[in-house]
Amino acid sequence: MPVNQIIPIYIVAGFLDSGKTTLIHNMIDDESFSRGQKTLLVVCEDGEEEYDAEKLAKQKVTLHMVDSVEDMTPSLFVDLNKQYKPERVIIEYNNTFTFAKLDTMQLPPKWELVQVIDMVDATTFDSYMNNMRQLMTDPMQNADLILFNRCENDMNVSAWRRQLRAMNSTTTILFEYNDGHSDDGVSDEDLPYDMKADVIDISEENYGTFYLDALDHPNRYDDKVVRFKGQVFAEPGVPKGFFRFGRLAMTCCANDITCLGFLCRGDLKPSKTQWYTLTAKAQTVYNKAQDHEVVALMQVSAEPTEKAKDQYVTFN
Question: Is 152 helix (H, G, I), strand (E, B) or coil?
Answer without folding.
Answer: coil
